Amino acid sequence: MADENTFFKNIIDTLQVSVCVFDTERNIIYCNRGFADLFMEGAASYEGKSLYDTDPVYVDRITALPRVLELKRTVIVEKQDKSGEDYAIITTPVTDSDGDIKYVIEAIYDDRRTSDEPADYFSGEERTGDSMVFISQKMNEIKMTIERISTFDSTILITGEKGSGKSTLAKFIHESSKRSKGEFVAIDCAAVPENQMEAVLFGYLPGAGPDIGGTGKAGLAEIANGGTLFIDEIGMMPLSVQGKILRMIQDGTYVPLGAAKERKVNARIISATSMSLENQIKDGRFREDLYYRLRVIEFNIPTLKERKEDFDVLLDYFAARFNYQYHMNKSFSDKARYALRKYEWPGNVSELQNAVERVIVTSKENVIETADLPDTIIAPLGSFDAQLPPDFDDAVETYERRMLEEAYRQYGSSYKIAGAMGMSQTKASRLMRKYGIGKMKEKGK
Question: Cα separation of 139 and 150, whole Å?
């Protein structure tokens, strides 16, 4: 049997495909030579190593393992390196008789790769952008629109709540456009004092700016020439500067502080706001003509609560990032994941990112439990836990039943419950039958 295993491993080693097999804890069971050479520095011993022991580029930009563990199905992702060549990652779960995942096989296909000349994954760029992490239909529709307009320079206005990812989307738009080789320059109007806004945006000549007597300084508009100027929280821009931005959009010109002549600039304008610009216009705080020039194309980013399908993908993405950054190997228990899903996330994706970094750093064990989560997240569960009966077995069943009842109210089917609670559909259906959850609805059909 050992000889047979060696024989098959030798065959897989000769394939022009990078192959790795993981268990459900993201530990490596087997990887072929192609994978080891690319992502493990040719490590001779791979057994027992974690996903997070591989190359950071693989963890952060290539692997689809976290998505497969969350979706419980095969995921096929096409990507592109910087030379424009395609490669594909096919990640497939291997399940037992109950439908529970035992292993995950990830294979990376690239016809150009040979054992002597590995593909240039390390400097490559994903088609979907390095920071756009989603599986939801709402976000996919935004991505598809961005792809359709990638050859145009139309102004874009991004709206959405604070922390929803407006700056991330703006950078993705830049990276997907014909200006991607130019600079992406960002300014947050909420962070710049009103009396310095014009100088920061358009620059100033010696003696004309904040450092009187200095040598002068180029503005962000000049730095963004040939690229993209992203203006975040544009609703907080002073009226005195709004007219100058309008001129820059219409004529492609601006005048630095202290200068007598206008200068030409070729920068695309992407702006974002978390406030209602319509209300700002009514209050006389924002120019209506500028508003219409800014929103030739408009994107509204849904809140994290409105894109629930993306939650686990984002959770795993941030966990992978911070595990690598802090040399950790931590994961969330099913109960911790459930508590995180139940939380409202008023700070959206930014709050989730900060929460994940906090628990990765502060938790003592490799498996993060509910008790490790911030009090603001687990507080809503307190009154629920207080109602449990004193007997341990009864308490477990009561807690289990209430969790399923709440999940059924929220998701409405065993398939969606299984995905949301990190279990197989077979197990979800069995537990629903055990507690009679969903029966009345089925009888009423």
Answer: 16
Share of the chain above pLDDT 90, in %: 38
Task: Name the token pair of 155.
Answer: 């102004």
Task: Kindly tell me the burial class for residue 291, based on how many C-beta atoms sit within 10 Å of its own C-beta (0-12, 13-18, 19 or more).
Answer: buried
Amino acid at position 110, single letter: D
Instruction: Tell me if the domain spanning 310-443 has CATH number 1.10.8.60.
Output: yes
**In the structure encoding, which two tokens stand for residue 68, read together?**
């497969």
The residue type of 92 is T
| Domain residue ranges in the chain | 2-109, 137-300, 310-443
CA–CA distance from 108 to each of 20, 28, 34, 174, 236 (Å)?
9, 16, 10, 27, 47
Rounded CA separation 313/356 (Å)? 13
DSSP annotation of 291: H
Supply the DSSP symbol for 231: E
Q: Is 255 helix (H, G, I), strand (E, B) or coil?
A: coil
80-122 pLDDT, tens digit each: 665 566 677 888 888 877 778 889 999 887 644 433 333 343 3
For 318-428, strand residue ranges (E) read: 331-332, 367-368
- Determine the Cα angle at 251 with ends 249 and 256, to 5°: 85
How many angstroms separate the Cα of 36 from the Cα of each of 17, 49, 101, 317, 442?
11, 12, 24, 22, 51
What local confidence, expressed as pLDDT, does residue 82 receive?
56
Task: Specify the pLDDT at position 440.
Answer: 43
Q: Which CATH superfamily does the domain covering 137-300 fall into? A: P-loop containing nucleotide triphosphate hydrolases (3.40.50.300)
- In angstroms, rounded to a whole number, what is the distance separating the alpha carbons of residues 404 and 418? 10
pTM over 0.85: no
Q: What would the DSSP string read from start to end of 114-137?
A: -SSS----TT-B-TT-SS-----H
Indicate the DSSP class of residue 102.
Answer: E
At residue 93, the 3 state secondary structure works out as strand
Pick the CATH number of 2-109 from 3.40.50.1240, 3.30.450.20, 3.30.2000.30, 2.60.200.30: 3.30.450.20
pLDDT at 61: 78
d(CA 265, CA 186): 16
What's the DSSP call for residue 423? S
| Residue 215: count of CB within 10 angstroms of its CB | 9
**Token output for 184:** 């992406």
Of 326 and 244, which is predicted with more confidence? 244
Tell me 233's DSSP state.
T
Q: DSSP letter string over 9-59?
A: HHHHHHSSEEEEEEETTSBEEEE-HHHHHHHSTT-S--TT-BGGGS-HHII
